[in-house]
Specification:
single chain; 494 residues; mainly alpha; Hypothetical protein af1432; Arc Repressor Mutant, subunit A; globular
Length: 494
């Protein structure tokens, strides 16, 4: 987001202190904790669309805290940033489209952000008391937010606390207590709940004490309302699946990629006779192997050709995956295995250039599964290969000493071509609607879907109306999540 590291942790600490200062009820205080941690993760789900509208999403997000963005000021902010990095003519065209449609494209992106964060909270079993506030991330006390349907006391108490804590943290970071107090005073009754602002102003020293110096990771963990609760094995798997799907939303080209890698890795493990423990390790590492992708700006992933610097930026993602997971007790082996998926036996991989002796069998299995699924997936730099072409490429990499030959042979031996026909299609979709859903999940526009399926644009529009109605969704992001969760994209044939 173009902000200092751990800023959301500091925001969460401020939110909890603010809740205490304002006498917020225990239930709403707990909701504020999880709402604060998840409010901005939606940025990972909408960055591809944001990049298409504004260029580098990091620069855009970094600029959002400076102004009181509501109503006309929000419109002016958007117009100033539309088409970032594009030609003057292209920017003018985008501005015209924004004005002509009353900003629907930008509102849709913001809605996707909220829906994705709310969906993640639901899949992590955090309840409606967290999922609902996340839908109000861009609303305001004065009702001039996005989508502008709720304001004042209609806003959940948790999101009111987070709105103030978010901006207070940003201004405290750049200007200290004086700046934090001033912005709260200036936006009292417009962006922020006046009662919360008054509570903050009365106890600002207490709320901000040591924020720049405390070990926020430890502080925030200690404040967790559910600290000590243990996930079952099944709950942990569901959580990791949710993280996998969320990471794959970074760009439409990746939809379902992580689930596909996990499915192939599990097949390979079965063929090689890995123990139950190692098979579980392989599946979990495969699910989260690409979490680091969300730490690389979308314009990098969407480039048809990488510059040297862009390639190096992309190659940091396995390292970021390991850093994201390394501080989670019990997932150390998963983090290490996941981070090795681009290493190669001959030392030609990245990010560390490790060789055969440093790569245990579970890491080799994940590497082969990822290599194969990547060959089946299209991206801006490489067209998708059919299974036979992908198998040939995989064998070539094994012969060259890059990939483990036994793991490659195990994958290819398990690679059935005939998918079992579903007795009941999830969501009650027809076969044609499933085809449209798959192309939609992969990021194709209506005209592109029509061309791919050899049907008219009107037919595609009709199918999409039926799909959205049957699934009870309203955005491409929600449809893509449904497609991933039900194996329409990414997963190999049964």
């Amino acid at each position: 987001m173009g902000r200092p590291m751990e800023r959301v942790l500091r925001q969460t600490l401020i939110a909890l202190r603010l809740a205490d200062a304002a006498g917020v009820e225990a239930e709403n205080r707990a909701a504020a904790y999880y709402t604060s941690l998840l409010t901005w993760v939606g940025c990972a789900a909408d960055t591809s669309e944001v990049a298409a509208l504004f260029g580098d999403e990091t620069a855009l997000y970094a600029d959002t805290h400076d102004g009181d963005l509501g109503g006309m000021t929000m419109a002016l902010f958007v117009l100033r940033h539309l088409g970032g990095g594009s030609s003057r003519l292209h920017r003018l065209g985008m501005m015209g489209g924004f004005l002509a449609t009353a900003g629907r494209s930008v509102q849709r992106v913001m809605q996707n952000h909220c829906l994705a964060a709310s969906d993640l909270a639901g899949r992590l079993d955090l309840g409606d008391e967290v999922s609902r506030p996340l839908l109000q991330a861009f609303e305001r006390w004065d009702g001039r937010g996005v989508p502008g349907r709720e304001g004042a006391l209609d806003l959940a108490p948790a999101i009111r606390v987070v709105h103030l804590a978010d901006v207070v943290e940003a201004f405290f970071d750049t200007g200290g207590k004086a700046a934090a107090v001033q912005v709260a005073q200036e936006r009292r009754g417009t962006q922020f709940d006046p009662a919360l602002v008054d509570a903050f102003l009365a106890r600002a020293d207490e709320v901000l004490a040591g924020i720049g110096d405390v070990q926020v990771w430890d502080e925030v963990i200690a404040l967790d309302p559910r600290l000590g609760a243990t996930l079952t094995e099944a709950e942990l798997d569901r959580a990791l699946e949710a993280f996998a799907d969320f990471a794959d939303l970074k760009t439409p080209y990746r939809t379902g990629h992580s689930r596909g890698v996990a499915a192939w890795a599990t097949r390979i493990a079965g063929r090689l006779g890995l123990s139950d423990a190692d098979t579980t390790l392989v599946r979990r590492a495969a699910l989260v192997h690409d979490l680091g992708v969300i730490g690389v700006p979308s314009p990098v992933w969407n480039q048809p050709r990488w510059s040297v610097s862009e390639r190096e930026r992309a190659r940091t993602h396995p390292y970021l995956t390991e850093r994201m997971l390394s501080r989670v007790p019990g997932l150390e082996a998963v983090a290490r295995t996941a981070s090795l998926h681009h290493e190669r036996l001959d030392g030609s991989g990245y990010p560390h250039g490790l060789g055969r002796d440093a790569l245990p069998l579970p890491a080799r299995v994940v590497a082969v599964a990822d290599a194969y699924q990547s060959l089946l997936d299209a991206d801006p730099r490489e067209p998708a290969l059919d299974p036979d072409q992908a198998a040939l490429r995989l064998r070539e990499q094994a012969r060259a000493g890059e990939l483990d030959a036994d793991a490659v042979n195990a994958l290819l031996a398990s690679n059935g071509r005939r998918a079992r026909k579903r007795e009941v299609t999830p969501g009650g979709l027809t076969d044609r609607e499933v085809e449209v859903l798959i192309e939609l999940a992969r990021g194709l526009s209506n005209p592109q879907i029509a061309a791919a399926l050899s049907v008219s644009r009107k037919t595609v529009s009709t199918h999409l109306e039926h799909i959205y109605a049957k699934l009870g969704v309203s955005t491409r992001t929600q449809a893509a999540l449904f497609a991933m969760q039900h194996g329409f994209v990414g997963a190999p044939p049964d």
